[in-house]
Write a structure and sequence with these properties.
The complex is a heterotrimer. By secondary structure, chain A is an all-alpha fold. In chain A, helix 1 runs antiparallel to helix 2 and helix 2 runs antiparallel to helix 3. Chain B is an all-alpha fold. Chain B has a domain of 216 residues. Chain B is built from 19 helices and two strands. Chain B starts with a helix and ends in a 6-residue tail after the last helix. A two-stranded antiparallel ribbon of chain C has the order 1-4. In chain C, strand 2 and strand 3 form a beta hairpin. Classes of the chains: A mainly alpha, B mainly alpha, C mainly alpha. Chains A and B meet through helix 2, helix 3 and helix 4 of A and helix 5 and helix 6 of B.
């Protein structure tokens, strides 16, 4: 892998942003968005694993001679396709739950909701 | 046929999950019947694979014919076969019960989610690929969030918070796998086990393993990452929780065992990790039991009890010798059975008496003698009284702790047992010797609800009396090679 | 006839088999009680049938049942075990008769549950008596704890539930200590069974062995009402009198001292006890319990509570004998298990008869009652004199042996302890007798409790007298006691805490 270390720092920063938002946001929807950011950072991380400067996309004519180092590693990208789908499904389910919560409580503020839950 | 059993164990519930909504349109009973049938077939496949693995070595199946390490491989060995069978068995019994509640049996979509959860959990058990495990982990997690969350407003909140924690946990797992993949270039568990020792001591390994462990620990509700559990278990219908509580966290523990002991092994910082796990587990067992005592709602009590009991399993892993590990595996099986039974009893009480608080248990023995006897046997087993299943797993754990000289952890086991006795016998006292509720309608639970409860109770006694056979025939072979 | 090898198992199981029969006949009290009697008689018969073999010096060994590696249930009747088993089953038969009378007189509710719990308790007790290894002992010990709980809280009153919770707190704590001790022993001495003379010598360093001993003593000591774990016993007197009589004067507490003696003689061995200095410590603890129990008994006005504290004190005679370790001390301890059983149960039967017939339970209310219940109070007097160690009664035999044993072990101070305790016994029993016979209004007619209540107490009082005059008259208890001493006692003279 010949990606610059700076990319990884940025990815780490993205993860921390997501994590911070998840923990610190008082609003449930914002927590969900932070979760998406966190998931996105991990996806980016994987893609970076497979990236190489100056490499070609992983397509080759059939029966051609393939030198692996010239091509981007396709496996992490494949894995992340799955991960993206998982992320979408999770977000969909989470939004469905949030709609139901909002309908009942009228708010998406976590502190409010928890307080009313305990009563 | 033998080689296809692992695939069948996943494919059957998965296919049934897709058919269930269609059947549900015409009749919910049909959907439920499909669920029962699918669970039984899954159980048969899992048991068959387990038996085959005990007889002739692990059963391997390469998905779509792509050979490992490039393709995804399914592997059933005694450990994963036991876990898969456990999942399928409890799924069958809960399906017979008729979730989410006896008089509101849930639509076709509900059974679809149920079967997806079964498929996901069995998938985690039988997969031999780290990323594939992530996929099944998320499948089961999503199905779990939906099953636990989709009832009333409170369950939605609990479900959403569970979703947040669970997704972060899954993401951390994925990140950890990413590190290990970056290092070794493979995702196949067996292949990675062969390649990792070359990188032993590398910070990437430490970080990757730590992330994987953190993720799976959160899914197992290991203290202090257990916050999502009490609410999620308390607000969902008890019968749903019976399945999720009994089985989902056990499968996460299985994944942890598999990765820590078989994949990573000595290549990673195993003793440090196990030390940390041990201390958190000791805290979990005591804190969980302590919090359970304070609960007035039976389901919350059971939820905190789960936190405490999972602590025992992790303690057994952390102590690490053969006796303690056997105790951990035995407890994994027996706790699944006991917890499922207790939640089904809770469901029965909720159905009959309209509430599931400790106050609602007064005079239960008069109205529902069979159910109360089942409750008594299971509670005594959880408290660790001989000659039940819970006693024997505790015996192994204590033996292991003494052999290793883990005195503080032994103290934690004893203390949490005493606390456990306090809250469990408190419930029993009310049920057998408490005041009768003034307006009681109906008598014992109907057969459909009683059969799963009685079956599970019999299992509790059987595991206790025949634990020798269980250990000798199955569990001994399920121990990781490094522990034997 | 059942083969000899199966009889230990059969003796344990017979009352369990009666449980479903008792439950099935819950609406027909006569039938239900018949099942109880039959089970009790069968149990006694099975146990007694093993007596000749054991007296002859052999043991009756049942096949072990392995439940886990290193964890086998194994029953075996040796001299010590058969003494306890015979005592428990004989007294169960008597108590069953008494229970029927008591329950009928008081029109008590929930009798089915009562008889079921009793049956399970007796199974567990025989299991404890005939346990051949620590693990079997532990299993039945815990079962006994759980099975006695419903009997303690029988009346369901708030006080009963409080007493029950207290009982469980003590016994569950003890159970955990016992579990750790048993597992630890299994860890350092795998595969070992109870063996006369012990098997722990040399298995681990002194610190470990002392720690294990302390855990064992907590485990057994709670049931044995050893200081400071005795607190549950007086509160447990809230249970119906037959429960107090059999369980808390015979089965449960005797299981505790039985356990203590088994640990001393068959796990550690007298010599190891002496080498570790444990015998001295145990003797001091027992002696203190004897005296404190007697003193506290003086302060009680509730008759059953006074009897409870007396039990606390008397049980430690047995523990003291175990600690002293010399042959007469051991023999005295074992015989005292029997003697105290008969005498104390007589006293409890009397208390119950008084309560059933006259609804009185306080000592201050008993003035003149002796003239109206001469048989009952006559039996009471015999029992009380026996406990104080009066000659011609069973209590004297054991006390005498214990005294000789103390001298043999070069611990004369314990003779003083025994004598003091005897005087205290008189101090707290004599006023009751005197007030009953010599105070209060004169009687016009006898008002004994019914025959089902009076019969048993006369029987046990007579037995106490018989055993005092002919110690071997019943089940050769005395010879068996000396047989036990022969198995485990140290050779005299024994210097406690010092070199052999």
């Amino acid at each position: 892998m010949t990606a610059l270390p700076l990319d990884y720092w940025l990815t780490a920063g993205l993860l921390l942003v997501g994590l911070y938002g998840l923990i610190a946001s008082p609003n449930l929807l914002r927590k969900l968005m932070s979760l998406n950011i966190l998931q996105a950072s991990i996806i980016v991380f994987f893609i970076q694993l497979g990236a190489k400067t100056g490499a070609a996309p992983p397509f080759a004519p059939e029966h051609a001679e393939v030198v692996a180092a010239d091509y981007v590693n396709p496996l992490p990208q494949t894995l992340m396709l799955t991960a993206i789908v998982v992320g979408v499904a999770t977000t969909g389910l989470a939004l469905a739950l949030l709609i139901g919560i909002h309908r009942h409580f009228g708010t998406l503020d976590e502190a409010d909701i928890l307080r009313r839950l305990r009563e | 046929m033998r080689d296809h059993l692992p695939l069948l164990a996943i494919a059957v519930p998965l296919t049934a999950a897709m058919i269930a909504p269609l059947l549900g349109r015409s009749s919910v009973a049909l959907a439920r019947g499909l669920a029962i049938l699918a669970s039984l077939l899954t159980l048969a496949a899992a048991l068959g694979a387990l038996a085959a693995s005990l007889a002739a070595g692990p059963v391997r199946y390469a998905l779509a014919g792509w050979p490992p390490p490039f393709g995804i491989e399914l592997v059933v060995d005694p450990l994963s076969g036991s876990v898969a069978s456990l999942v399928a068995a409890i799924a069958t019994l809960v399906a017979v019960w008729g979730v989410p509640s006896p008089d509101r049996p849930g639509g076709g979509v509900f059974w679809a989610l149920f079967l997806l959860l079964v498929a996901g959990l069995v998938g985690i058990a039988v997969t031999g690929d780290l990323f594939n495990l992530f996929v099944f982990l998320e499948i089961s997690a999503l199905a779990g969030y939906a099953l636990l969350g989709a009832h009333d407003a409170r369950s939605r909140v609990a479900g959403f918070r569970y979703l947040l924690v669970g997704t972060v946990a899954g993401s951390f797992y994925l990140l950890g796998v990413g590190y290990l993949y970056a290092l070794t270039g493979t995702l196949n568990m067996a292949d990675m086990a062969a390649r990792l020792p070359a990188h032993a001591g590398s910070p990437l390994v430490t970080l990757g393993v730590a992330l994987i462990v953190a993720g799976l620990a959160a899914k197992s509700a290991l203290f202090p990452l257990h916050g999502w559990l009490p609410d999620a278990y308390a607000y969902a219908p008890p019968a749903v929780v019976a399945f999720v509580a009994a089985v989902a966290s056990k499968v996460s523990v299985y994944a942890l065992i598999r990765i820590l002991f078989d994949v990573v092994g000595s290549a990673g910082p195993l003793s440090t990790l196990l030390g940390i796990l041990g201390w958190t587990a000791a805290a979990a067992s005591v804190a969980g039991a302590g919090m359970a005592i304070a609960q007035q709602d039976f389901r919350r009590l059971l939820a905190y009890s789960s936190v405490s009991q999972m602590g025992y399993i992790f303690l057994g892993l952390a102590i690490g010798n053969e006796a303690a590990f056997t105790g951990a595996l035995l407890h994994l099986v027996s706790h699944a059975v006991m917890k499922a039974n207790l939640f089904l009893v809770a469901g029965g009480v909720l159905w009959r008496r309209g509430g599931c608080r400790l106050d609602d248990f007064g005079g239960l023995s008069r109205q529902m003698p069979v159910t109360t006897t089942a409750l008594a046997v299971t509670a005594l087993s959880m408290a660790g009284l001989p000659p039940t299943a819970g006693f024997f797993s505790k015996y192994y754990l204590v033996l292991g702790a003494i052999q290793e000289g883990a005195w503080w952890w032994l103290g934690a086991i004893v203390l949490s047992t005493l606390l456990g006795i306090a809250y469990l016998l408190g419930v029993l006292e009310r049920a057998w010797f408490g005041e009768r509720a003034s307006d009681e309608v109906g008598g014992e639970l109907p057969p459909r609800l009683l059969v799963p409860i009685v079956t599970l109770t019999a299992a509790v006694l059987a595991i206790g009396l025949f634990n020798q056979d269980l250990v000798e025939v199955v569990l001994r072979h399920a121990l990781p090679a490094s522990v034997r | 006839m059942i083969d000899l090898a199966y009889r230990p198992v059969a003796a344990v199981l017979v009352s369990l088999l009666a449980v479903p029969l008792i439950v099935a006949s819950r609406r027909r009290p006569g039938l239900r009680e018949t099942w109880t009697f039959l089970a009790a008689a069968a149990k006694l018969g099975l146990v007694a049938s093993m007596l000749p073999t054991v007296i002859g010096g052999e043991r009756v060994d049942a096949a072990p049942l392995e439940l886990a590696p290193g964890f086998a249930l194994h029953l075996r009747a040796d001299a010590f075990g058969i003494v306890f088993a015979t005592l428990a089953s004989a007294l169960w038969l008597v108590t069953s008769v008494y229970s029927v009378g008591y329950m009928r007189a008081g029109k008590e509710p929930r009798q089915t549950g009562y008889f079921v719990a009793f049956a399970v308790c007796l199974s567990a007790t025989i299991g404890i008596a005939l346990a051949a290894n620590l693990v079997t002992f532990l299993v039945f010990y815990e079962v006994l704890t759980v099975a006695t709980y419903p009997l303690v809280i029988h009346s369901r009153s708030p006080e009963a539930k409080r007493a029950g919770r207290r009982y469980l707190a003590y016994t569950m704590l003890a159970g955990q200590a016992l579990l750790v001790a048993v597992v630890w022993t299994a860890a350092i001495a795998p595969g070992e069974e109870l063996r006369a003379g012990g098997f722990l010598a040399g298995r681990a360093g002194p610190a470990v062995l002392v720690a294990i001993f302390v855990l064992f003593m907590i485990g057994c000591g709670a049931k044995a009402a050893l200081l400071p774990l005795h607190g549950w016993l007086p509160d447990a007197m809230i249970a119906p009198t037959p429960v107090s009589a059999l369980l808390h004067a015979v089965a449960v507490v005797k299981a505790g001292v039985f356990g203590c003696l088994r640990i001393v003689g068959w796990v550690f061995g007298i010599d190891l006890m002496s080498k570790l200095g444990l015998d001295l410590a145990l003797a001091v603890l027992a002696g203190t319990t004897i005296l404190v129990g007697s003193v506290r008994a003086l302060a009680q006005d509730e008759l059953k509570r006074r009897l409870a504290y007396s039990t606390v004190s008397q049980l430690s005679y047995i523990v003291l004998g175990a600690a002293l370790g010399s042959a007469p001390a051991i023999a005295g301890a074992v015989f005292h298990m029997v003697a105290h059983g008969f005498m104390k149960i007589t006293l409890f039967f009397c208390a119950g008869a008084i309560h059933a017939r006259h609804h009185l339970s306080r000592i201050s209310e008993l003035k003149g009652l002796g003239r109206r219940m001469p048989l009952t109070f006559g039996a009471f007097t015999l029992g009380a004199l026996g406990l104080a160690g009066t000659p011609l009664l069973a209590g004297f035999v054991s006390k005498w042996q214990l005294g000789i044993g103390a001298l043999d072990a070069s611990q004369p101070i314990y003779v003083a302890v025994l004598l003091t305790s005897g005087l205290l016994n008189l101090a707290y029993f004599f006023p009751i007798v005197r007030a009953a016979f010599f105070d209060g209004p004169t009687a016009t007619e006898t008002q004994e409790a019914g025959p089902l209540l009076t019969g048993p107490l006369l029987l046990t009082a007579a037995a106490a007298l018989l055993l005092g005059i002919f110690p071997d008259a019943v089940a050769s208890f005395h010879s068996l006691a000396w047989q036990v001493a022969g198995e485990i006692a140290s050779s005299p003279p024994q210097l406690a805490g010092g070199a052999p």
